[in-house]
Amino acid sequence: MSKPKRDLSKYFLPDMNKARKRIEQSKIITDQFEVPTNILNYGKGKKFHIRTYGCQSNVRDSEIMIAMLKMIGYEWIDDPFQADLIILNTCAVRENAEKKVFGEIGWLKQIKTTKNPNLIFGIAGCMTQEEKIVQEMINRYDHIDFIIGTHNVHRLLKILEQTILEKNTIVEVWSKEGDVIENLPDFRSSSIKAFINVMYGCDKFCTYCIVPYTRGKIRSRSKEHIIKEIQELIKQGYKEVTLLGQNVNSYGIDFVNENYKFSNLLEDVAKTGIKRIRFATSNPWNFDDSIIDIISKYDNIMPYIHLPVQSGDNEILKKMNRQMDINDYIDKINKIRKAIPNCAISTDLIVGFPNESKEQFENTLKLYNEVQYDNAYTFVYSPREGTYAATLKDEIKIEEKNQRLNELNELVKKYAKKNNEKFLNQIVEVLVEGPSKKDSSILSGYSPQWKVVNFKGDDSINVGDLVNIKITKASRFSLFGEIVK
Ligand code: SAH
Ligand code: SF4
Ligand code: F3S
Question: Which residues partner with 121 through β-bridges?
């Protein structure tokens, strides 16, 4: 596509100052999505490819984009070189996530120059909500055809239509979150487990985090829409749902006329009878005791809680605006362990927050040794422009931070193995997902505690079955066992 010179004033560019504000109440809209008449069958005979980075919110957004593209006839293709449309669904949470995307944008240019000049190339996801990033994309690359933000994913087909008709780069990023759009088409990448958005956005403003800017303020979906979606999935044979949100524990705090919290939702979802329920992710701040009670009461809510703590040091937690001290956190962990004795617990940790001292880092190690997590996602702090923490002067060298990360990861490995070994000789129920990645003669699935379990299958076992497996081997990453007849 040859394009006229870019007129920046035509673009809907993001503005992080606007994104910071929390003013209007969002509405639930059920008639916003429609297929533009100009491109009803535009994708017939054409192929698309989407690359997804970041968290499950992006995975779910990609599924929705896939559904829209299929509606106008496009089909998925694994090989980007064969595609007529490529979308990168990006993540902004750390600098290296962004570097990876810039690398991909550069590399994918050759498809347009050498293989398919008519390729339409779009960027979606959280990076598009940052003004500097969008400007860099527009200034550095001329092969990007459209940029769509996180708040207007439902407008993908409109933006595609505009791209096709105007033959110009289209940038449409809304800085402020829109409404909750309920009539979106649906595609699911699995036939047995599904992600269910329960809330969007985040109002916590942890000082290091860009998510409240890229995903906007908290907007909870209505209980009725969520339950109806799950009931539909049960009819279709789904076995597991994961309730999704940046901080599911604050579900419902934005309801004006209703007192309905995450624990209420969890209980109503449990009552639908779906076999397995998971949820992600949980800032411990709003993780109240009623949630623990409900998990312990219902067998179909899985005994696995991801409870990101970020640091084991009270001073650092305060600087991060995590609103919780370590004593309170350990209190919660103890309550969980008492009420749900077989519960697996994992966490997220950031090392090297600006000026984190050796002693403060050691408090993180101390906490880790105390809680002995099943697993942890560990990160070196990455300054995100526009956040408060990025304005702090930082004296700690990156080499020191990397060394701390390695030290922490040794503990993660140690306790992952130790916790997995607890399952030796036990019988665990596994939801069968298919052949294992490494060996197709071996079947693989997850236990209630979110442990990968591999086992030798037989012809009687199908994807989606729940089978009992006796664990015979345990490594840091997975369990291995035999079917119990
Ligand atoms: N809402 C979740 C976290 C979502 S972001 C919660 O509050 O628990 C996922 C993880 O990325 C965070 O838990 C944090 O550990 C990490 N993270 C976020 N911003 C980061 C940054 N600027 N540098 C390094 N890690 C970061
Ligand atoms: Fe980011 Fe999670 Fe904090 Fe929200 S609660 S600001 S998503 S780390
Ligand atoms: Fe990344 Fe956005 Fe998720 S920044 S972690 S894709 S909410």
Answer: 86
Nearest atom within ligand 1 for CA of residue 377: 15
Helix (H) or strand (E) holding 50: strand 47-52
CB of 245 closer than 6 angstroms to any ligand 2 atom: no
User: Taking the CB of residue 333, how many other CB atoms lie within 10 A of it?
Assistant: 22
Q: What is the DSSP letter of 452?
A: E
C-beta of 206 in contact with ligand 2 (< 6 A): yes
CB of 202 closer than 6 A to ligand 2?
A: yes
CA distances from 143 to 4, 139, 415 (A): 13, 11, 47
Angle between helices 95-110 and 131-140 (to 10 degrees): 20
How far, in Å, are 109, 121, 142, 483 from residue 106 at the CA level? 6, 12, 10, 48
Exposed, middle or buried: residue 152 (CB in 10 Å: 0-12, 13-18, 19+)?
A: buried
Task: Indicate the average pLDDT of the chain.
Answer: 94
Report angle CA 212, 218, 224 to the nearest 5 degrees. 150
Structure token digits, residue 113: 């120059």
pLDDT digits (tens, 9 = 90+) for 340-365: 999 999 999 999 999 999 999 999 99
State the pLDDT confidence band at 459, using cuts at 50, 70 and 90.
Answer: confident
- If one residue of 129, 204, 319 were mutated to test the ligand 2 pocket, choosing by the most ligand atoms within 8 A of its CB, it would be 204
Closest by CA to 266, choosing from 231, 304, 237, 226, is 226
Q: pTM of the entire structure?
A: 0.94
- Residues 189, 193, 199, 201: is their CA dihedral positive or negative? negative
**Ligand minimally distant from the alpha carbon of residue 95:** 1
Q: Which ligand is nearest to the CA of 321?
A: 2
Q: Which backbone phi and psi does 14 adopt, to 5 degrees?
A: -75, 160
